[in-house]
Amino acid sequence: MKYSKYLMSVAAVALAGAATAEEMTIVSWGGAYSKSQLKAYHEPYSEKTGITIINDDSSNEAVAKLRAMNEADNVTWDVVDVVASDAIRLCDEGLAMEIDADEVLAPAPDGTPASEDFGDLLVSECFIPQIVYSTTFGYRTDLIGDTPPTDVCAVFDTETYPGKRGLERRPINNMEWALICDGVGFDEVYDVLATEEGQSRALAKLDTIKDDVVWWPDSATSIQLLADGEVVLGSAYNGRLFAAIAEQEQPIGMLWDAQVFDLDGWIIPAGLSEERKQRALDYIYFATDTQRLADQAKYISYGPARASSAPLVGKHAELGIEMAPHMPTDPENAKRTFLFNYEFWADYRDDIDAKFQAWLAQ
C-alpha cells in the first residue's frame, strides 16, 4: 500500500469515527504512565476524531490475555501497550500485526523516514516504540538511615539497610540484579542466565533476602509500598518514582545504579476487522509522531523513542521543572546502566517464569 493511499484510508476512518463517535479500547499500565498517554495522545485524538477511548490497565497480563482472545476468536482490544520483549513474543506467535514503519508511521518533521528516526529501537516488526524507561530503586529517605545507598547491591545488604524490600513478582530484572550482586559482570549476565546453573545461582542469591521481600504484582503497588513505608527500598519504574517524588512530594530518593533500560510501545493485535485495524493504525500514526512523543515527556520522566522528539522535551506541564535531568537517559543518571536483553527474555521467559513461580511457592 502506498503512503498516500494509506493517508487517504486512515483519514476516511477518522472522519467516520468523528461522525459516529465510535469507541476503541487501548490497553496500558495505569497510574502516572496512563495519565501521560491520556494528556499527550488520547484527549487530543478524541478531540480530533470524536472517537471515545476506553482505557484498560491490563498490560501486565497482555500476553496471556491476547493468547486467550485469539484462542476464543474474540479480540476485544484495539491497541496494546507492551514492553519490547512481550512484543517480540506476540509477534513470533502471530498475535500482533506486522508494521512497516515507513509506510504507516509519520516521518520526522524534516522528512526523515520513521525507520531512521526510531533507529535501533525498532526491535520487532510488530512493535512501535514510545519511550525509553528504566526499572530502578527508590528508598525511603526517612527510614534508610544516615548513609543513603549508592549501589544496587544495597538491596541484598540487610545488615546495613534493615527492613523490607519491594520487588516485582516476576523474574525479569530480579534475576539480573541477583547475578550482578553475586559478582557477574554486566556483559556476562545473560550468558550466565541462559544456563541452568546460572538460573539456580540467581535464585540462590534471591534466597538470601526472600524473607525480607514484599512482592508487588503491578506498578501502582510498587509505589504504594514505598509511600506507606511498608518497604524501606524497592524496585519501581522511574516514571512512577518521579511522580511520587516531584508531584506528590513523598520522602523518597532514587537509586540509579544498575537501572535497567527497557523499551515500551504499541502493538496492534492480529485478527481485527479491517475497520478496526484502520482505526488502530490511524491512532498509531497520530500518537507516535514527533510532537506527541515529546508531549508525553511533559507529564512523565520517560525518554521519547524518536530521535527528533528529544530536542523538543521541555518543562513539566504542571510543575514547570525541566524534565531532561529526570530522564533515565540523562548522562548523570546513566553512568552505570544495565541494558535489558529483549531477545533473551522473548526466548526464555516462559521457562524461567515457571522456575521463578515454583521458587516463590517453596
Quick take:
By secondary structure, the chain is α/β, with parallel strands linked by helices. It is built from 14 helices and 10 strands.
Report on this model:
The protein is an alpha/beta fold. Helix content is 41%, strand content 17%. The chain is built from 14 helices and 10 strands. Strands 1, 2, 3, 4, 5, 6, 7, 8, 9 and 10 form a 10-stranded mixed beta sheet that branches. α4 packs across α14 and α7 packs across α9. The chain is globular. The N terminus is likely disordered.
* Record field, number of beta strands: 10
Our estimate of the beta-strand percent is 15-25%
Number of helices: 14
User: Which structural class do you get from the secondary structure elements?
Assistant: alpha/beta
What overall geometry do the principal axes of the alpha carbons give? Answer: globular
> What is the N-to-C order of secondary-structure elements (H for helix, E for strand)?
HEHEHEHHHEEHHHEHEHEHHEEH
Report low-confidence residues grouped into runs of 5 or more: 1-20
**Termini separation (Å)?**
54 Å
**Which percent range fits the helix content?**
40-55%
Cα-atom Rg, whole angstroms?
21 Å
Mean pLDDT: 91
Largest sheet entry: 10 strands, mixed
